[in-house]
Structures are given as C-alpha cells and as structure tokens.
Amino acid sequence: MLGDRTISAAGRGTLFAWRELGGMTILAGQVLRALLPPRMDAPELLRNMYRMGNRSLPIIALTAFFVGGIMVIQAGVLVKQLNAAGLVGWGAGYAIFREVGPMLIALMFSGRVGSNNTAELATMTVTEQLDGLRALAIDPIPYLVVPRVVAMTVCLLCLTVLGNLIALYGGAFFAMVLLDLEFSTLYYSLVDNIHWLDFVHGAVKAAVFGASIAMTSCYFGISVRGGAVGVGKAVNAAVVAAAISIVMLDFLLTAVLP
Amino acid sequence: MRDVDVSFDGSPVLRSLSLSLERGGRLGILGPAAGGKSVLLKLLVGLVAPDDGAVHILGTDISRGKEKTLMRVRRDVGMLFQNYALFDFMTVGENVAFPLARLGETEEGEIAERVSLRLRAVGLAGSETKMPSELSGGMKKRVGIARATIARPALLLYDEPTAGLDPVTTSKMYELIAADQAETGCTVLAVSSDVGALCGFSTELALMHEGRIRYRGPSEAIGDSNDALVRQFVSGKDEGPL
Amino acid sequence: MSLTTHIEALGSKAAGAGRAGSRLAIIAAKSMSGVFARDSPKGEVARQMYIVGNKSVLFIAITMGFLGMVMVIQSGGQINRVTGDLSQLGPQFLKLFIQEFAPTITALMLATRVGAGIAAEVGSMKVTEQIDALRLSGITPTSYLIAPRLIACLFMGFVLTVIAIVIAFSAGGVSAWGVFGLNPTVFFDSSMVRSYDIAIGSIKTICYSTAIPIISGYCGLEARGGSEGVGTATTSAVIGSSFAVLLLDFIISGIGLTIFGGGV
Predict the structure, then answer these.
(1) What is the reported pLDDT for A228?
(2) Is residue A14 part of a domain?
(3) Which residue of C has its CA nearest to B156?
(4) Confidence of residue B2 (pLDDT cuts 50, 70, 90)
C-alpha cells in the first residue's frame, strides 16, 4: 500500500530528525559545560579563527557586494512604481541589516566553512583519530569541538557586520549606476530611518546562526559512520540541517527580538 | 603491438621513458610506490596525455589522439583499475556486461550468457544481482577482471591486481589472469609492487623508479642485475640506494 | 615577499583561473550537447529527478514556509510603522516571491542539497577511477553523468520553485492573518503579478538550474586524491553554485531593470 509506505516513511523521517536533534542537543550541552569556565585549546581556537575567518572573507565580500546590488534593484522597481527615491536607502538597508545580510552570509558561510568542518571532523572520525585522542586521555569535545564552535560564532558575527557594510556600499554603488540616485539621498534615507536596533537585530541573528552552523557541522562530523561514503553523506546532511536551522531560527529570532 | 614509445620531457612523473611490448607477451612492471606505474598504464589508453613523445598502441598513434581514434583503440583494451573502479550504482552483472553493451552488443540473452560464463570463470558464479558494496576486496578485483576481459580485448592492463590480498588469493588471481591469457592469446601488462608474485607470473619484468625504467629483462634474471637499486628492491633489504 | 613575486603569484593565479574557466566552459558545452545525445543509461533521468525532486521537496517546503512568515512579519511591521495600510502586502509579496525570492532561495537550497550531492557522487567516482573506467569503455562522462542531472534539475527546479511560491504565499497569508489580523481575501490577491514577473522568475529558474549541476559536476570531475579530495569538491560545489546563483540573480534582475524598466 502506498499510503502505509508513505506513513511509515514519514514516521521514520520524524524519528530520524528527532534522533539527530537529540544528539545535537547533547553535544550543545557538552560544549556549554566545557565553556563554563572556559577551558579550551587556545592555539587551536586561533588557528580555526584564522582559517574560517580569513579564508572565507573574499567569497563573503563578493556575495555581500552583489546582494547589495540585488536589494537595490528590487527596491528600484518600487522607486519606479511609486516614484519614491527617498525609500531606497531605507528599504535596502533595513532588509540587509535585519534579514538578507545575516541569512545569505550565513548560508554562504555554512557552505564554505560548515561543510569543510564536517568533512574534516568526519575524516578524523572514520580514520579513528578521535579514538586516538581518547586513548591519549584527551577529550575531543573541549579539544576539537569547542574551539570550532567559538571560532565559527565569532567569525560569522564579524563577517556579517563587515558583509553588511560591504552590501550597503555595493547597494549604493549600484543605486548610483543603475538608478541614477545621489549618494546623499541614499545616505540620509538610510541614516534617518534605520534604528540602531535594526543593526543589533541582525548581529544577534548572525551570532546565533554561527553557533547553529557550528553545532550541526560538528555533530554530523563526529557522529559519522561508514568510511569515505559516510563522509560525503555527513557533509550533505550537515549543510541541509544548517540551512533548515538557519531559516527556523531566523523566524524565531524575528518574532522574539525587537 | 609495436613501439610503445613514451617520453615526458621535464615532467616529474615519467622521464623520457621508452617501452615496447611484443604481441602476446606477458610483461610485469615492478617499482616502488609513486614511481609512475599507474600513470604509465593510463597513458597507454589515452586517459592521460603525454606532454611530449609518442605513444603507439596496437599499431595506432594515440599521443595526438583525436577522441575518435582513442575510442576505437580503447575497444581493444581491457583494464583492471587499482581500486577496481566498479560502478557502484550498478549490479555486478551490469558492471560486467557494461563493455559489451558499449560495443554495440544488443542481444540480451547473449549478453547474459557471456556475463554468467565470465563470472563463473572468475569463481563468482551466480552473483550477478549483488551490488559491488556487498563484495569483499578480492571479490571486487575478480569482478573487475571479469569486466576487463569480457569483450576479449587484444591488450589487457592490470593495475595492482593483488594489492591488499593474501598470498593464496594472490596466486589464484595470477592463475586466473594466466588462464585467461592462454584462452585468448592477448597481450598482458601487469603493474605491481609485489615482487615474488609478479616474477612467477610474467615472462619479462621491468622495474620503474622515479619515472625511468631501471631494468628490463627476463623474470628469472632480475635478481642478478648489475644495478644495486634493482637488487635491493627485489631482495627487500634495508640498506641500498633506495 | 617582493613586489615581483606578488605579481608573479597573482599572474599564475589568474592563469589557473583562466584554465579552470575554460575547462568549466568545455564541460558546460559537452553537458548541454549531451542532453540531446541521450547517452545516459535507461531510467537515469527519472532516478535523478527522484533524487533532485522528492528528496528536496520537504527541505524546500520547510525553509520556504518559514521564509514566507518572516518576510510578512518584517515587512508588515515596517508598513504598520509608516502607513498602516496592509492591503498591498499580499499582492506585492507574491510579485516579489515570483520574480525574486522563490527562484533564488530555492536555487540556493538546491545548490546546497543537490550541488553537494552531485559533487560528492561524481567526485567519488573520479577518485575511485570509475570515471576512467567509463572513458575506457568509450563513454563521455559529461553526457553520461552530468546531462541526466542537468535535465532533472531543469525540470525539478521549475516544479520546486512553484511549490516554493505556493508554500511561502500560504504561510505568509496565514501569518499576516495571525499577527496583523489581515483578512486572507485581501492578502491572497494576484492582481499585481504581471507576465514580466513570471518571465523573469522563469528565466532565473532556468539559468540557476543549468548552472548548479554543471558547476557541481565540474567540481566533481576535478576532484583529486582520496576522500579528502571529494570533501574539497563538495565544498567548492556548494560555494561555486551558490555564488553563481547570486551573480546570475544580480545580472538577470539588473538587465530586467535597466532594459525593461522593471516591468512597470
């Protein structure tokens, strides 16, 4: 029966989702416990921050630049419709700060850093390097996972703040080129209408997204099973889970934050 | 086959390497890891293009090969890859039948019969419907051999046919290759780092090191070579030029 | 480092990028011609459609549902602050989703889900020499492997984008009703949608669904060296196709605005 099969597949899917969610929660608990008081490998933290932050800066900057352009083009349609040039800076800035900036940068960050991180941890797991650490009496959670979680959270926050700025400049650039708007029009439209809370709203989102990307990518990395094929599956599962959690958390935070 | 002349000037993988092989011969190529052995095999079927030099295979020049010439030559070549390269989205039977279907064989019954004969010959009768992931390493190698030989190619290339196998399976593997050659009279080129087994199998041996041929001659005489490096590799001693 | 070494490094990087670009172009051309060669195994297109479509539909539904709600809450709050007239919320929302958010966000999700899958699959075939074995049997890997994925992505990209629009619009309508008490009959109004919006949305979908499998397939075919190589290929596929989606979005929207005046 198709109906039976669909239902049982849905049930299996639900169970699977809950199991992974439970596993991630346990891992999050372990990470939090390791952070109180903070004890982690400092060189490992710096190395991770350098790798994750520096290396993803070019792609994030490019993304942000074009996202600014896209937002301005969308706002430009409204400008032509309503003849309201004064709204472009505000509309694009508001969207970039609160929604589009944090979310798209987080999605790119997840693709670049999150998937890399999963692949790395998963390879370490299937080649028994994690067991090797345990055999040397080193707990892999504070040693490997915690620095990565902290590094990803900090890096995504910084990258988003920077990316928002680049997106605004990109937006201004394309508004001047494509819509023939004055820079001052854009500037005052933005400064007069944007509240500092809009900026904080996006920054908080970025930090939470960073932590959630870190949790999903580390979890799927260390819970991998089944050789090289398993590594590929873990990476795939991690980016999908990260994307879902980004969108869901975005909704929750939009509702909760001012 | 005449004049397999290969040179790779200035390339770190193969350095001005020349090699020729008689039709119907059985040549084994030995050498330490990363000596360019696999590259040599891939060169022979145009999977790697030479920077310089010429590759003639079965009387055709493939070094400046157009895709069409390559495709024609490859029909007469079978190859066992180092990692078996079984298509993991196909069953064992489909894997073995693959070269046949590609050569334009369409008669389903004929294909099925030849596949089951081939699988029986490699000692895996009746495993047509299994997936490659269900097989052990040795079984995968045997499926790979079945796939390489099913179209009765004139030249067979074996890349590490016995790496990671136990001694008993190793000798079985070479028996299988030899039996197959006796049946079809094809030319065999095997690459391996397993000295003993390859010595027993091939009529002629060559040793490759850092992209060059250091020794070429009959299998029995390799231990008496004047080259200290060759002697060290064959005897497996610790001290020496290697 | 001296200036000349910097310049040399930059030059070799540029040359490398040029070579990679030409290889990508060759693979793109071969895959597209492979679509007509019908060289792929029987049932492969259907299998790929199942992988692309069925296995992504839930993912797309969840993300687009939440996105629809967020967009309505954010923009509704702003409109309430300025004019308080929410009657245009639904029609403008639908217009914006058809020509911008639904195609682009769906494509970004497909780039993660499907792009990573294609790169991982093709990449592991590459490092285990299965690609070489295919070529040895006289098969062009592009038309055998990438073309069916391209067809599947083109078809499923459309279907998923339509699903995305429906789900986001419904979720948006429900939250507009729940949060702002907006009457659903006011929200669910398609009078603002012009054929221009549908055309732009369709063009975007076609371009994205072409770019994702080709870029991911290219990353897979370029994979080198064991499972680590597959991991690198997967990452660069996700990043490459996501970035391509955003760049195409910018280009197509830009052309739409400057040449066709944004359809106004």
Answers:
(1) 66
(2) no
(3) C136
(4) very low
